[in-house]
Every structure is written in C-alpha cells, then in structure tokens.
Design a protein that fits this description.
The protein is mainly α. It has one domain (3-218): Fido-like domain (Fic-like fold, Orthogonal Bundle), CATH 1.10.3290.10. It is built from eleven helices and no strands. The protein has helices at 3-20, 26-35, 37-45, 57-68, 77-88, 114-125, 128-131, 135-149, 156-171, 183-194, 199-218.
Length: 219
Amino acid sequence: MDDQISSASTSLSQYHSRLLSRDVDILALNRELVSEVEFFKSAINRSSNPEMKTLNQSNFLDAIFEVFQVNEESPTLENLKNVNQKLTGEDPQLRSTQESPLFGRFEVTPPSMIERALRRFFEWAGSDGYQDLHPIEQMAIGQIRLLEIRPFLRLSRLTGDILSYSFLVQAGYLLPSYSESERESLNNLIEEGLDFSTSGLVEYHLEACKRSYQKALKG
C-alpha cells in the first residue's frame, strides 16, 4: 500500500475496532446494509449494462447472501458459479464468444481459456501471498481479475463484484456503501486497475467502507 492508502486503511481499522468494542454482530449489520433499497439502487446505477435495469432485487440479495455462506478462507469457483446462478435464475453459462476489448484497449480472456484462467485465479486467491494483502486490496484485485476473465454469458461483471465482497466478509468487515452518482469515477478507476494500478480503486473502496462504519457507529 502507498502512504495515502495506508493512512486510510489505518482510519478504517480504527472504525472497525470501535464497532467491535460495542459487541455487535457484523454479519447481521451486513445483512441490514445490503437489504436497503439504496444499496440495490446504487449497484444498478453504477452499471451501464442494460440487463441490470431488469435485475430483480430478490435475486440480487440472494446472490449477496450466497457470499455470506462462503466457509473457506477464500472464495472458490463453485461460489462464483453459485452467485451467477442466484443473479440470473439460470444455470451458469460460460461465455463462448470473444468479447470486445474493455475500454477499447484491454483484451478479455478468450473463451477457450476461461476455465483455466478461473482455476488459476482461485488458486492465487487462496495462496499465502494473496492472503497477506489487506482484505480491501484482495477485493479490488479480485474485481479486476474477474472482469478481465469475464467468464459468464450474463451479468458477469456484477457476479465478480459481488464475489469480491467475500474477502471483506471473511475478514469480518462491513461491506462498502457506494453513491449512486459514482459510475463515471468508478469506471475510471477500473480502467486504471486494468492498467496495473489498483491504488485508486482500493482507496475508493476504503472510503465506501468508512461510510458504512460511520453510519453504523451513529446508530
């Protein structure tokens, strides 16, 4: 982490310690957070995918609650498929055609390499080196890598975003609270992440997590 992110991470850890001192149930707080209409609306409005406009909130919640059931130290390919199934209401279908480059310049994984790329990502996510990263760094990197792979025919980006929450859930953190108006800035940070610079995306997620803690501490 660079100095600015390290400072923000320290601030988040302080919020986290204050909340834990109240002997609260973090998982219960996360369930309340994601059940709010604003949480769902912000996810819809941060995406330019037309299919998101028809997404059922019940399916959205089922997908996030699936992440709460992750029992391993890190998520698995099976968890990813389950999230996609909950979102779409269908058996997960891997993409069979080549996608256009992301942001016009970042190549998406070819269909013939999707399964191999997924296996390698989840092996990496379970490694000691990955586990040594701050959970928000794990979340941001996972979000970028799954976007690059873009494995599914439907709602692939949202599937990866939701699965990335599992790194926070497993570490016992509150999930982030995003603003509905942040789509443009988020996409800029995603583009930077695809260009091997995730510090801006990490800071973005840190600030969104701090919002959740500030709200919980006021309650």
